[in-house]
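Action item from last meeting closed. Structure (132 res):
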């Protein structure tokens, strides 16, 4: 095999290895609240917004989320603009890390009930009620 072929193959393999490493580091895994407290890196946690727990002072949003699989709750601190649909949120995915006794979110993904879901529920109720 020619030296140029060997060098070309080595460059391609090196590029693939570097690309895989960068891709793997960009993945943010979902973790349970317990695992998130024990992990040093960036993770995602999913939960439901605890009623009446949100406080926003114009620069910092703090709230509690409840784990969907256990009775565990976690304090979340988000230091960015409050998402516009936060007050209608059912489910929240927080991306960040746990430190200083709270989960510090870099990003929030707010999942709200859909207007189409409400329309479907009304249609289901109408279909179940007896015709007059």
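Sequence:
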């Amino acid at each position: 095999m020619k030296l140029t072929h060997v060098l070309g193959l080595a460059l391609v393999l090196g590029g693939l290895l570097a690309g895989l490493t960068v891709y793997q580091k960009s993945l943010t895994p979902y973790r349970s609240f317990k695992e998130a407290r024990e992990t040093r890196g960036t993770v995602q946690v999913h939960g439901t917004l605890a009623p009446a727990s949100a406080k926003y002072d114009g620069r910092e949003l703090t709230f509690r989320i409840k784990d969907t699989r256990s009775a565990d709750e976690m304090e979340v601190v988000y230091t960015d603009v409050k998402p516009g649909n936060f007050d209608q949120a059912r489910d929240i995915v927080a991306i960040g890390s746990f430190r200083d006794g709270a989960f510090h979110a870099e990003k929030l993904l707010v999942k709200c009930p859909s207007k189409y879901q409400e329309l479907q529920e009304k249609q289901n109720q109408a279909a179940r009620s007896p015709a007059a």
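Note appended to the action item: The domain at 30-113 is CATH 2.40.50.140 (OB fold (Dihydrolipoamide Acetyltransferase, E2P)).
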